[in-house]
Amino acid sequence: MKKITLITLLILLIDQASKIYVKTHFYLGESVDVFPGFKLTFVENPGMAYGFHFGGLLGKYLLVIIRIFLIGGMVYLFRKWLKEGRTTNFLLIPMAMIFAGAIGNLIDGMFYGMIFDSGTVYDEELGRWIDYGGISNLVPFGKGYSAFMKGCVVDMLHFPLVDTQIGNTRIEFFKYIFNVADSAITIGVALLLIFRKKAFPNGLDF
């Protein structure tokens, strides 16, 4: 359990520190070149990894609930596996990465609206999410721009490996902007797929 806790806390620390830094130092939409093929580009999204989202506030609430159930289910699995003596790193490390990533993005959605003075909000009359200007600041808990479960996920990692203009067409690869939590989930899933026979020697016996 110590291994799971350590990995989870480390990823959460890096994830939240990077998000808070970007949100309090970057204008929404601002992009800074770090080196060729890598930028820090600040965007907010109300949905899932890599900017995907669905619906308005109802879709956002549903996503938060799904994340809570996912995290609860993983806690159950960790306890079950440890009780059974299934302590292989091929299973626990990737699962801990996925666990930390899910918690990281859940924190944004649940609490960022309550601890920052500005952020992307949903306009029910227009039926869409509205951006904001300026740079956000941290405020006392509960004094933020929005309410519980109405915050947006902060994304900033941008790897446009190809970014060129051909005629009137802009070609960009990889255009998605994501965060440390998204990365942890993606890498964790990839490791489970690569080492699935060692992680699940008896098959997917959850």
From TrEMBL:
One GO MF term attached to the UniProt entry: aspartic-type endopeptidase activity
Record GO biological process: proteolysis
Gene Ontology, cellular component aspect: plasma membrane
InterPro entries: Peptidase_A8
Organism: Cruoricaptor ignavus
Subcellular location: Cell membrane
Enzyme Commission numbers on file: 3.4.23.36
Similarity comment text for this entry: Belongs to the peptidase A8 family.
Keywords associated with the record: Aspartyl protease, Cell membrane, Hydrolase, Membrane, Protease, Transmembrane, Transmembrane helix
This protein's encoding gene: lspA
Highest classification ranks of the organism: Bacteria, Pseudomonadati, Bacteroidota, Flavobacteriia, Flavobacteriales
Topology with respect to the bilayer: Multi-pass membrane protein
Pfam families reported for this sequence: Peptidase_A8 (PF01252)
Its biological purpose: This protein specifically catalyzes the removal of signal peptides from prolipoproteins.
Protein name: Lipoprotein signal peptidase
Catalytic residue positions: 155, 182
